[in-house]
Specification:
Length: 262
């Protein structure tokens, strides 16, 4: 009877990645979907303590013991959600509300040729966007300047340009405007350089049997560049460094096949 060989199992890996961040007490808070991840990798490096015999003229290795194992890796995603931005910035995201309350006397010092962001204050440095009924007056409020001649305005971004050669000279003016009532999300950086939690990979391979991975304790650290303006046509990617830790009451990595009904 001919020899029977096992069918080769080749794999082209695909799947979905989820991160479950820990809170301040080390409790998991619920999984965040990373979205499309072109690459998730794990790298294992070991360190050995080696012993050499001194009983003969030739020094020979007679023992080698693994004394350390490091599990690291990387995760790359190109789903540019607010949640992913917050993870990469090691920060937080908050819901913000812009109310439709008319502003009539926002006093600002201006210079011809410069640009100014409406509503920019210390508590809201990005200012307001999507505004209507923009006016520019002198400090006393007795002169109303002409749009197009004395200033230009972008209503969507809430930005005003003081025109050089117009009637507005260097000094104080009063801006008037009404923001559109709307809600949006803000992401801000945090004070930590890494985020700890659990990582789950749900496989959907192009070929090969699906195996799901779970790493109950990992740290994510932002790595590389965040393109904000770019000349090319490459999609923006967020790169994370990954360190896989062994929890107190578990293993570092779990890799399960899919149960199949008998």
């Amino acid at each position: 009877m001919a020899l029977i060989h096992e069918e080769q199992k080749y794999t082209i890996p695909r799947g979905r990645a989820y991160f479950d961040p820990e809170d301040a007490n080390g409790n998991l808070t619920g999984e965040i979907a990373f979205g499309n991840c072109p690459s998730v990798t794990v790298t294992i490096a070991t360190e050995k303590a080696e012993h050499f015999s001194s009983m003969t003229g030739l020094r020979e290795k007679d023992a080698s013991v693994v004394v350390q194992i490091d599990r690291t890796g990387s995760l790359v995603c190109d789903h540019m959600s607010a949640a992913n931005y917050a993870l990469w910035l090691s920060g937080s995201r908050t819901a913000r509300t812009q109310t439709a309350v008319a502003v009539v006397d926002e006093l600002r010092a201006v210079q011809p040729g410069r640009f100014y962001q409406l509503g920019a204050v210390a508590a809201n440095p990005l200012g307001v966007r999507n505004v209507t009924a923009v006016t520019v007056k002198n400090e006393a409020g007795t002169t109303t300047y002409d749009a197009g001649d004395d200033y230009n305005v972008d209503l969507e971004t809430g930005r005003v340009q003081i025109v050089e050669g117009g009637a507005i000279v260097a000094g104080n003016v009063k801006f008037g405007y009404t923001p559109v009532a709307a809600s949006f999300e803000r992401v801000t950086t945090g004070s930590t350089s890494e985020i700890r939690g659990a990582l789950r990979i749900v496989s959907d391979n192009a070929t090969g049997g699906d195996r799901d991975y779970y790493m109950p304790r990992v740290t994510l650290t932002p790595d590389g560049d965040l393109p904000i303006i770019a000349e090319g046509t490459d999609f923006v990617q967020l790169n994370f460094g990954l360190e896989v830790l062994k929890p107190a009451n578990g293993e570092a990595i779990y890799c399960d096949g899919r149960p199949v009904a008998a």
